[in-house]
């Protein structure tokens, strides 16, 4: 397995890169905007294809690299359901998994530092974001933080993981790089409390100044989606336009989501399934979508969860000469909110 812990010194942020093999798919956790070029260089050197960029929560102390990585690599962006960001490609909840080739992250909802904080577990290790730090815990005094929720997330979820589980946080300010669940239970000074009230008392009296960048970083970090015009345009269809379009037998409706998303959220009737990660191959001259568009004169209409992957797919298709590809703005989420039909 390929595993990298990368450090950004201005905000003392750790970013993690995971891949099952050289030349394979990669995933990145908590990328920092200013470091994008160095991540891309690493992917290049290891011949990795970035397919998912994940943030543990909306960060207040640095600019997220999610949007820039998506724009540069067409990767999917992933955050928790509660994150107040305009658009990400996929949203996860507790119990979900985030999958790439050969790597599966188990999603654990760990609110408290913020109400959108998640941890991600991979076999022998857990990425704890700002929920559990090395000899510390994430502050709980802004972004809908809650000391009580932090206690619950740490004591009832993270500390229940096997003792030897490696703890990889999103920050460290003293140069520590990794810990374990057993070590934090025994030596983390914030966790040496007898009750939730005692913990809340500690957390509510830290007297910390706001992060220097909070007023600029949070607004920037919640507007990272691909621009999608509300009225629709040649490529982006509103739900009403899409409903009219799919009555045309020459329109092929293509679902770009993963199997788990389809099972959970439902499917628009008459859909062809082409997972977003395989799209590049499918629009090549030898690919199914290319043959449908060129050989059979079909019009491609993409959709996904929120309209982000489908907007990127239109770009990819058009770059491959499939000039009239379009997508459903807002994805299945908008489709469902409009009360449109789903497959039984
Ligand atoms: Fe944070």
Task: State the major sheet.
Answer: 6 strands, mixed
Q: Uncertain spans, ≥5 residues at pLDDT below 50?
A: none
By DSSP, the count of extended strands is 19
Return the structural class. alpha/beta
Strand content: 15-25%
How would the global form be characterised? elongated
Rg from alpha-carbon coordinates? 21 Å
Mean pLDDT: 95
What percent of residues adopt helix (DSSP H or I)? Answer: 25-40%
Termini Cα gap: 40 Å
Q: Taking strands numbered 1, 2, ... along the chain, how are they ordered across the largest sheet?
A: 1-2-3-4-5-6
Continuous helix count: 12
Hetero ligands: fe (ii) ion
Describe it for me?
The structure is a single chain. With 344 residues, this protein is of the alpha/beta class. 28% of the residues lie in helices and 24% in strands. It has helices at 36-45, 66-73, 147-156, 181-187, 196-203, 214-221, 239-245, 259-265, 279-283, 288-295, 308-319, 331-337; strands at 2-8, 13-19, 25-29, 49-54, 76-80, 90-92, 97-100, 103-109, 118-122, 125-129, 132-133, 136-137, 166-169, 179-180, 236-237, 251-255, 271-273, 299-303, 326-328. A hairpin with an 8-residue loop joins strand 8 and strand 9 (118-122). Fe (ii) ion (FE2) binds at residues 57, 59-60, 113, 130, 138.
């Amino acid at each position: 397995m390929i595993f990298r812990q990368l450090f950004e010194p201005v905000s003392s942020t750790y970013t993690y890169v995971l891949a099952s093999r050289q030349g394979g798919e990669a995933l990145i956790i908590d990328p920092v905007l200013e470091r994008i070029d160095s991540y891309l260089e690493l992917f290049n050197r290891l011949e990795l294809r970035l397919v998912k960029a994940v943030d543990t929560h909306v960060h207040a102390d640095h600019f997220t690299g999610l949007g820039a990585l998506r724009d540069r690599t067409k990767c999917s962006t992933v955050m928790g359901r509660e994150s107040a960001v305009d658009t990400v490609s996929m949203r996860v909840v507790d119990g979900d998994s985030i999958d790439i080739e050969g790597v599966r992250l188990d999603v654990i909802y760990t609110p408290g530092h913020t109400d959108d904080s998640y941890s991600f577990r991979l076999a022998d290790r857990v990425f704890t974001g700002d929920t559990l730090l090395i000899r510390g815990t994430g502050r709980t005094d802004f972004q809908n933080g809650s000391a009580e929720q932090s206690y619950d997330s740490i004591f009832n979820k993270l500390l229940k993981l096997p003792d030897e589980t490696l703890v990889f946080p999103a920050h460290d300010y003293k140069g520590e790089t990794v810990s374990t669940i057993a070590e934090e239970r025994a030596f983390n000074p914030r966790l040496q409390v007898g009750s939730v009230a005692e913990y809340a008392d500690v957390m509510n009296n830290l007297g910390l100044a706001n992060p220097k960048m909070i007023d600029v970083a949070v607004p920037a970090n919640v507007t990272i989606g691909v621009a999608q015009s509300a009225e629709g345009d040649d490529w982006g269809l509103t739900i009403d336009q899409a409903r009219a379009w799919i009555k045309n037998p020459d329109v092929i409706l293509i679902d770009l989501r993963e199997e788990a998303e389809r099972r959970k959220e439902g499917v628009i009737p008459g859909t062809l399934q082409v997972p977003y990660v395989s799209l590049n191959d499918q629009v090549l001259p030898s690919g199914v979508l290319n043959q449908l568009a060129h050989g059979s004169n079909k019009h491609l209409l993409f959709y996904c969860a929120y309209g982000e992957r489908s907007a990127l797919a239109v770009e990819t298709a058009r770059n491959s000469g499939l000039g009239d590809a379009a997508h459903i703005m807002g994805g299945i989420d908008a489709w469902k909110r409009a009360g449109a039909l789903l497959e039984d």
